[in-house]
Amino acid sequence: QVQLVESGGGLVQAGGSLNLSCVASGIIFGFYNMNWYRQPPGKQRELVAAITSATSGGVIGYADSVKGRFAISRDNAKNTVYLQMNSLKPEDTAVYYCNAEYRNTHYWGQGTQVTVSS
To answer: What is the DSSP string of the chain?
Structure first.
């Protein structure tokens, strides 16, 4: 059974930081591309940050809206992907989802709420 469990969300003031974690089980973690998506209230889900599989070299990419503020990383020994979020803005408020993808098969976590107050 595949499980992705996110943690680290919460309420923070603008300019603050949060570090999200996602622990995966039931998959060969190193084979999977790992992604963070978010869904703001009333809007569609969007890709925020991505890191390719360990076997593909861990190439990283970001949405323009978070470049320079967010950092994605993975620890393959711990089956965990992280999203360090700095200089948070009210528009970063959303439910953040961890996603694992391999050969177009996707698995999702349950999401963690991030709320940034102005």
So the answer is: --EEEEE--EEEETT--EEEEEEEESS-GGGSEEEEEEE-TTS--EEEEEE--GGGT--EEE-GGGTTTEEEEEETTTTEEEEEE-S--GGG-EEEEEEEEETTEEEE---EEEEEE-
| Burial group, residue 109, by CB count within 10 angstroms (0-12, 13-18, 19+) | buried
Instruction: Name residues whose C-beta falls within 8 Å of residue 104's C-beta, 6 or more positions apart in sequence.
Output: none
**Burial level of 32, CB count in 10 A (0-12/13-18/19+)?**
buried
> Which mean pLDDT values do the consecutive 10-residue runs of the chain (118 residues) have?
97 98 97 98 97 93 98 98 98 98 97 97
The values of phi and psi at residue 37, to 5°, are -115, 165
